[in-house]
From TrEMBL:
Family statement: Belongs to the DapA family.
Catalytic reactions of this protein: 5-dehydro-4-deoxy-D-glucarate + H(+) = 2,5-dioxopentanoate + CO2 + H2O
Keyword GTP-binding listed: no
CDD domains attached to this UniProt entry: KDGDH
Organismal lineage: Bacteria, Bacillati, Actinomycetota, Actinomycetes, Kitasatosporales
EC class (word): lyase
MF terms in GO: 4-hydroxy-tetrahydrodipicolinate synthase activity; 5-dehydro-4-deoxyglucarate dehydratase activity
Name of the molecule in the record: Probable 5-dehydro-4-deoxyglucarate dehydratase
């Protein structure tokens, strides 16, 4: 166990960042025992950090009470071996509440997701994230996506804000990201973290890595940690052959399957966890389950991915 600050613990990740799904029992309630098992297996498989109750973890579907219990369970399962970062979102008042619940549950940091529903200007967005950062002692990573898209000037101000340590990009505008990185580097001395937060980030990580962004989310790690870890290691080692083999044989086909249904970035991942033998239940509405045929295709794809690993040995 280490007490090093979150930014230092994430600076040189030993593996992918793990975004566990939230487990539900047959009655639809949160299944904390299965959730602990899921988190513990991910940590033992080589995750560099656990991002609990975020997008893949159906933050949108959890009550505040469920959220606090899940974050606490993730902290318990991680046992200090890796940091646990919790989601926080909705309007400012609720985002502050979730931030404080996460702090009380023992989280090491926050992933601040976009405000709910409204499309705000840069001044309002900046005020929102500053209030979230001021609400607790937890370091904050701001998630850029959907209705929370920032100018380079706003990211400079975020980087100047006490408690805000990084930006996770779920937009995919590489020109904007280059301008953001350049502006922050020029205006704010010190390390500011950047994350590739696009769905199935492995598919775009070569491009982000060229910008100097080495941190990325890995939903695939939820159900195929060996594949995600092999890809992460190959990237770090400059093993282009393995990177290309996994991209062509697994990640690209997975993305194409994921794009067959709305919400599959979560629902298909959860189906993958069930296919690998851990019953984490179904997604909650408004998400829906993948079709039977899509689950069958996923099973075949997972089998193909592991065969690629065998070939690489």
């Amino acid at each position: 166990m280490t007490s090093a600050p979150l930014a230092a613990r994430l600076n040189n990740p030993s593996g992918p960042l793990f975004f566990p799904v939230t487990a539900y029992g047959p009655d639809g309630s949160v299944d904390l025992d299965t959730y602990r098992t899921h988190v513990r297996r991910g940590v033992e498989a080589g995750a560099a950090a656990v991002f609990a109750c975020c997008g893949t973890g159906e933050f949108h579907a959890l009550t505040p009470e469920e959220f606090e219990r899940c974050v606490s369970a993730a902290v318990e399962a991680a046992e200090g071996r890796v940091p646990v970062v919790a989601g926080a979102g909705y309007g400012t008042a609720l985002a502050v509440r979730y931030a404080r619940l996460a702090e009380a549950a023992g989280a090491d940091g926050l992933l601040a997701m976009p405000p709910y529903l409204v499309v705000a200007g840069q001044e309002g967005l900046l005020r929102h994230y500053r209030e979230v950062a001021a609400a607790t002692a937890l370091p904050v990573v701001v998630y850029q996506r959907d209705n929370a898209v920032f100018t380079p000037e706003t990211v400079v101000e975020l980087a100047r804000t006490d408690g805000i340590i990084g930006l996770k990009d779920g937009l995919g505008d590489l020109d904007l990201m280059q301008r953001v990185i350049s502006a922050v580097r020029s205006e704010v001395p010190g390390d500011f973290l950047y994350f590739n937060g696009l769905p199935t980030a492995e598919q775009t990580q070569l491009a982000y890595r060229a910008l100097g962004v080495t941190l990325y989310s890995s939903a695939v790690f939820c159900f195929a940690p060996e594949l995600a870890l092999a890809f992460h290691q190959a990237l770090g080692n400059g093993d282009e052959r393995t990177v290309e083999k996994l991209l062509d044989g697994f990640f690209r086909p997975f993305v194409e399957l994921r794009d067959q249904g709305r919400g599959y970035a979560v629902a298909l991942v959860k189906a993958g966890v069930r296919l690998r033998g851990l019953d984490v239940g179904e997604v909650r509405p408004p998400l829906h389950e993948p079709t039977e045929d899509h689950v069958k295709q996923l099973a075949e794809l997972i089998e193909r991915g592991y065969a690629l690993l065998e070939e690489a040995k």
